Amino acid sequence: MEKVIIFDTTLRDGEQAAGTTLNKEEKLEIARQLEKLGVDVIEAGFPVSSPGDFDAVKLISRQLKEPVVCALARANSKDIDKAWEAVKQARSPRIHVFISASQIQMAHQLHKSPEEVLQLASSMVAYAKRYVHDVEFSPMDASRADPVFVYRICEQAIKSGATTINIPDTVGYAMPEEFGGFISDICENVPSIGRAIISVHCHNDLGLAVANSLAAVNAGARQVECTINGIGERAGNASLEEIVMSITTRQDLYKVETGIKTEQIYRASRLVSEITGFPVQPNKAIVGVNAFRHQSGIHQDGVIKMPKTYEIIEPQKVGVPSSSLVLGKLSGRHAFKERLAELGFTLSEEDFSRAFAAFKELADKKRIVTDRDIESLVAEEKRTIVEVYHLDRLQVTCGAGIPTAAVVLSGPEGEKLADAALGTGPVDAVYKAINRIVKVPNSLTEFTVKSVTEGIDAMGEVLIRVESEGISYTGRGADTDIITASAKAYMNALNRLLAERNSKGE
Ligand code: KIV
Ligand code: ZN
Prior knowledge:
Blueprint: E1 2-3, E2 5-8, H1 10-17, H2 24-37, E3 41-45, H3 51-63, E4 68-74, H4 77-87, E5 93-100, H5 103-110, H6 114-131, E6 135-140, H7 147-160, E7 164-169, H8 176-189, E8 197-202, H9 209-218, E9 223-226, H10 240-249, H11 251-254, E10 256-257, H12 265-276, H13 297-305, H14 333-342, H15 349-365, H16 371-383, E11 390-397, E12 404-410, E13 416-422, H17 426-438, E14 443-451, E15 460-468, E16 471-479, H18 482-503
Parallel strand pairs: 1-10, 2-3, 2-9, 3-4, 4-5, 5-6, 6-7, 7-8, 8-9
Antiparallel strand pairs: 11-12, 12-13, 14-15, 15-16
The structure holds 3-methyl-2-oxobutanoic acid and zinc ion (ZN).
């Protein structure tokens, strides 16, 4: 069976949309999971866009063994030099060169004529080719461009050495039959197309990114660009898990395969959501919490008798854990370790010991510790690694009086720092007290609280974003006490901010 190359752009198009900066360790953690997932190509970033992104691409290039590592570049020599500098240590490096191809973008954004764009595309693909054999070219906004111009620019790019031709539906404008037809037309009208792989890159503005990508596969595309959970610019990109599971589930129709280890999908989804701070909607196909839940009595009856009556995918096939083991306060290290392995976590001895201690503490407060609790708790333990300031204790009074908070933090040298403040509410008071100690000007731009599981004893999970000097930082915290969870989330965001400043030597 022919193979469709899965090109994951979570760390480039996805990160672009996250409204937040992922640091290089976070990007590496996602990249490692993408490698476990078996993606063929990882677009690790856009190196010229920031020193942080450059470092992240470089780190990922050095650390990963299996996938092709790709860096994005506009069609100019400076971008391409930076892209090469960042990926050159990868085992299989790729440079991805793009330039606008629609009349509207060429005229109003690039201020260049079609002939100038053609010339740039051709010379810059050739420039990238001097560095590396594997060069991808994208005529941006191809689905709104003059098709004849797209044929010409693709032909030129292939003649200059492009080995992959990527057709982007940049603004999610195309319809499936139309987009599939466009790919067939490219096959017919680009004389050298047989020398390149056809790729597609679809956005989801009309909710059709996956449908358009699949139509393109039917028409001959053999690379699909996509992201975990479909994150990306605006309404996002085509979702990796939906594309892969469509191709896998309906092999009778598509007659192609992917190299994805589908059992790693759920873990990848959780990790990306956790690190980017983008929650997954409950009814999201494949990875939403309701994707394998049956509510109606008739459906439940059917599934009990024979799962296939209402399930087209076995949950285990995408790595959704089957919670046969209930963990509680009597569970030991062994049971906890096994559960972690089933959930896809491999922790160092040190991380494991910390996670186990946190599990025991939680189990004392909650009768049953669920998988979501464990995921939240492990994430919480991992978060503490980059701390400059650590939340030691807090005490809050609220209700009838004036909300007041007292906090104790451990400072960079382990010293204890205490302060107190009044606020409009308990969380405001806690944040003000923390600000009096940490003293980093910032503004809170987002604050969300949700419960990790059902029940009155559920853990609360808080997600916040703070902005400082135009950069947004995400913070998360989880605890059975939501004021403590809010304080942990704030400390997490502040610690990221401080780590970023430290890494810049500020
Ligand atoms: O959406 C788009 O056109 C892109 C290109 C850089 C491929 O992201
Ligand atoms: Zn895009």
